[in-house]
Amino acid sequence: MNTNTPDSTPQSLAHAAAIFSAITQVSPAAPFTWLARGFDDLRAAPLASLFYGLAFALMGWAIVFFYGNAYSLTVALIGGFMLLGPALAMGLYGLSRQREAGATPQLRPSLTVWRSNRSNLAIFALVTGVVFLIWARASMVVFAVFYSSGLPTAADFLRELTSFDNIEFVIAYFFIGSLFASFILAISVVAVPLMLDRNADAITAMLLSLATVAKNPLPVLIWAALIVALAGIGFATAFFGLVFTIPLLGHATWHAYRAMIPPADI
Fold first, then answer.
1. Burial grade of 65 (CB within 10 A; 0-12, 13-18, 19 or more)
2. Most-buried pick from 166, 228, 236, 242 (CB within 10 A)?
């Protein structure tokens, strides 16, 4: 059946090209500005923001409660925070967007912010979910290979990280983990905000995210280090720190997006 629906492909390509041309090169100090602005958003909507932080902390506690005896699996699942974070923090982007528009940030609208572009956000969530499953398997394999005497306890794992008794494990684990985390960061640094803000399709958003990283390698590297540091504080405090650090990072991510892809009528 032949329908006379207009071909949206040229429009999509023109839209993507316009966004690509708008990518801004920022300074290496920019990530600290993003954090400062993210903190302002957190202060403007503390209860709504901390709600999302508490949700992340509850997920961490649930993982430990149900899988605490299988420490290698627990570590892999906790690592999933880093991989799934961009998709799970959509509500925080919604709060920042409300405040940017001059409105008082409200929790309820932020809970359904995904509805505006649900199909493409679902595709992105699927991609990151698959990466997470591969990471979980890779993490288990690294544990199995480097612990021939059996899987370690929590104390064993911490000792490996702070000593040179099994340096091969430490190098392999962090090298493989860094590959997965770098890939997710590269395809997501502005992807989810872009899909929420401009209804971009998932593939275009991920490609434009890669282009943004290519144009701002040093700022994004510094941003990645800050994410790891703040997430690490959250994990090191038995997930209590996530109640604060996750909202801070989520709001700051919106400002990272806005700094590198400024608003425009395109």
1. exposed
2. 242
Half-sphere exposure of 120 (CA within 13 A, CB side): 19
If you search the block for the tokens 């290519």, which residue do you land on? 214
**Sequence ranges of the domains in the chain:** 29-260
**C-alpha distance from residue 29 to each of 25, 200, 218 (Å):** 12, 28, 10
Q: Report, as an integer, the average pLDDT of 212-219.
A: 94
**Residues 6+ away with beta carbon under 8 Å from 166:** 146, 160
Return the DSSP state at 104: P
Q: Please state at what angle helix 90-100 crosses helix 242-260, rounded to 10 degrees.
A: 60
- On whether the CB atoms of residues 184 and 128 are closer than 8 A, the answer is yes
For 26, left (φ over 0), alpha (ψ -120 to 50), or beta?
beta
Pick from 256, 265, 204, 239: nearest CA to 74: 239
Mean pLDDT of 112-122: 87
- Rounded Cα–Cα distance for residues 31 and 84 (Å): 21
Structure tokens at 9: 């492909």
pTM of the predicted model, to two decimals?
0.81
pLDDT digits (tens, 9 = 90+) for 71-104: 556 666 666 666 667 777 889 999 999 999 888 8
- Report the alpha-carbon distance of residue 57 to residue 1 in Å, rounded: 52
Tokens of 42: 């957190």
H helix or E strand, kind and range, residue 127: helix 118-146
- The tens digit of pLDDT for each residue in 147-192 reads 655 555 555 555 665 666 667 777 887 888 888 888 888 998 999 9
What single-letter amino acid sits at 65?
Answer: F
